[in-house]
Amino acid sequence: MIAATVIRPETVTTRTGIRFGLVDHAPLLLEGTLGMADPNACVLLKRDLAVVMSAEALFTLTDLCGLGTDEAVTSAVRTATAVTRAAVRAIA
Description:
Layout: H1 2-7, H2 20-34, H3 39-52, H4 55-64, H5 69-91
Helix pairs in contact: 2-3, 3-5, 4-5
């Protein structure tokens, strides 16, 4: 996917982004629950979570850090949780 993005950037919007359903959902929960005062906070949280949920992040955890698939997912979830908690603290 990364190579395709570099070589054929026009195809970026045609690829599926299943994980982005979750990335889109998290800021909506915070917005509804906390009534975020800063509308930009949702945008920033979505970008932060997009990095955590990227395929490249999981490849790094499995290939370079030597984690198994389940461990890599657990690590990504832990990081996403930490990012979300930090966002909540920043707006609370």
